[in-house]
Write a structure and sequence with these properties.
Layout: H1 14-17, H2 23-35, E1 39-40, H3 41-44, H4 50-55, E2 60-63, H5 89-100, E3 104-109, H6 120-131, E4 138-142, H7 150-159, E5 163-165, H8 175-178, H9 184-197, E6 202-209, H10 215-227, E7 232-237, H11 254-266, E8 270-274, H12 283-291
Parallel strand pairs: 2-3, 3-4, 4-5, 5-6, 6-7, 7-8
Antiparallel strand pairs: 1-2
Helix pairs in contact: 5-6, 6-7, 7-9
């Protein structure tokens, strides 16, 4: 069924309505981020966990600008023609990490298909800047697919992050409608490359549910991720960020998320599933769980 023919968004269930925003804590961390000239994907993508994570002094840094060259139907990040990358961004990121006392830093970026390297240099330079700190944090990258240009993946691997995250986002059947400029196989190729080249780096991916996928389709994706060498998978409920994005098809229940965790773990994956789970949610906890296994 096409998205245009879907029924109106279902009424929010109680387990979704229960999440509240603590705006004072949110604005305080936003102020600190703005002082360094930085932005977070937590804000740009309107993540429902941003208050909780910000109140704990953690955030996912958004590099390579705020404008994405792609136009995925689920995402609220601005799309269009990006400006030039700020060459001072890696230094600003490292200073913000030090100022906030972070022990685990997540770095992500908008897609930059306008750049020859797809924006990979931004990841490399951010990692190197963090490594120069007196007490460098654990580093997790959440990268684009680079249109399957695996040389760019290799450059980031060589810089040495502790965790390499790349989200498949949805099931293959929905890619054309949800992630128009991406390819499911590209996402798997990124994860395979990391697993084959640097097995010491933790591999991670994420899936949204509530876009029209079935449990069997999600189960197949979990199998594909395990085959590709992925170790950690996050599964969360898609929530329409604004009126401009595709509507929610249905809300998965907490019991269904618990079942998905069991299915994934039976395939050898460390799975974090729940209505508000996102790819960077409690990233340090996921990292430590795998390290200590």
């Amino acid at each position: 069924m096409s998205f245009g023919g879907r029924a109106p968004t279902p009424i929010l269930p109680e387990w979704i309505r229960a999440r509240k925003m603590q705006l004072g804590e949110l604005h305080e961390v936003k102020k600190r981020m703005r002082a360094g000239g930085l932005h977070t994907v937590c804000e740009e993508a309107r993540c429902p966990n941003r208050t909780e994570c910000f109140s704990r002094g953690t955030a996912t840094f958004l590099i390579n600008g705020r404008v994405c060259t792609r136009n995925c139907s689920y995402c609220s990040i601005a799309q269009g023609r990006p400006s030039a990358v700020d060459p001072d961004e890696p230094r600003q990121l490292a200073e913000a990490s030090k100022r906030m006392g972070l022990e685990h830093v997540v770095i992500t970026a908008v897609d930059r298909d306008d750049l020859p390297d797809g924006g990979a240099t931004g990841f490399v330079e951010a990692i190197l800047a963090l490594r120069e700190l007196e007490k460098p944090p654990a580093i997790e990258v959440l990268t684009p697919d680079f249109r399957a240009d695996l040389e760019q993946v290799d450059r980031i691997i060589e810089a040495g992050p502790e965790v390499y995250n790349h989200n498949v986002e949805t099931v293959p059947r929905l890619y054309r409608e949800v992630r128009r400029s991406g390819r499911y196989e590209w996402a798997l190729e990124v994860l395979r490359r990391v697993a084959g080249t640097a097995p010491e780096i933790i591999r991670k991916s994420g899936i949204m549910v509530g876009l029209g996928e079935t449990k069997d389709e999600v189960t197949e994706v979990l199998g594909d991720l395990a085959e590709a060498g992925c170790q950690v998978v996050t599964i969360g409920q898609y929530l329409q960020p604004t009126g401009k994005q595709v509507k929610v098809d249905r809300f998965w229940t907490p019991a269904e998320f618990a079942e998905l965790e069991e299915i994934g773990r039976a395939k050898g994956l460390e799975v974090f599933a729940g209505p508000f789970v996102r790819s960077s949610y409690r990233a340090e906890e996921a990292f430590l769980r795998v390290v200590n296994t």
